């Protein structure tokens, strides 16, 4: 079935089952591999994208339900001014360790900063609690979000 998706401002069509998770449509059909597979069960946040501006789990979002919604991935956020500011803070504060979860972390951080330009520790903890990091870079992530907010 042809499913039309609005990804990073462009209309893209994929031939797939409407139940296919958005994560795999992005990675397999659209060759956008910045969005990562972690758990596939909605638990880790590695697959975070924005849907209509809010963070969402791409592994738990059937493409049939994402039709007509504005999907934003790390590929677009990385090119945006806000994304560059966040990436600069990530580099400056040496946030990544293995790096695997960081695209998802940056997607949640950018959604937070878009709505809360000067977040408190509590705001950051609430926004980031769904993004797990096995290297435990949480303290540096919080510092980098504050740095990017300046
Ligand atoms: Fe989607 Fe873990 S891969 S939440």
Automatic annotation (TrEMBL):
What domain of life does the UniProt record list for this protein's source? Bacteria
Q: Where is the 2Fe-2S ferredoxin-type domain?
A: 1-77
User: CDD domains recorded for this chain?
Assistant: fer2 (cd00207)
What keywords is this UniProt entry annotated with? 2Fe-2S, Iron, Iron-sulfur, Metal-binding, Oxidoreductase
State whether keyword Metal-binding applies.
yes
The record's listing under Pfam families reads: Fer2, Fer2_2
Query: Which GO molecular function terms does the record list?
Result: 2 iron, 2 sulfur cluster binding; metal ion binding; oxidoreductase activity
What is the designated name of this protein?
A: 2Fe-2S ferredoxin-type domain-containing protein
- Which organism was this protein described from? Sphingobium yanoikuyae ATCC 51230
């Amino acid at each position: 079935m042809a499913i039309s998706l609005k990804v990073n401002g462009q209309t893209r069509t994929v031939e797939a089952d409407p139940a296919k998770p958005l994560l795999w449509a992005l990675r397999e059909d659209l060759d956008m591999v910045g969005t990562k597979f972690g758990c596939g069960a909605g638990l880790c946040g590695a697959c975070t994208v924005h849907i209509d501006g809010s963070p969402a789990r791409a592994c738990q979002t059937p493409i049939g339900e994402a039709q007509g919604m504005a999907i934003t991935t790390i590929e677009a956020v990385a090119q945006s001014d806000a994304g560059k500011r966040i990436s600069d803070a990530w580099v400056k504060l040496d946030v990544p360790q293995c790096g695997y979860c960081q695209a998802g972390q940056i997607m949640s951080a950018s959604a937070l900063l878009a709505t809360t330009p000067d977040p408190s520790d509590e705001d950051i903890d609430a926004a980031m609690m769904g993004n797990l990091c096995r290297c435990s870079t949480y303290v540096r992530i919080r510092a980098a979000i504050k740095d990017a907010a300046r």
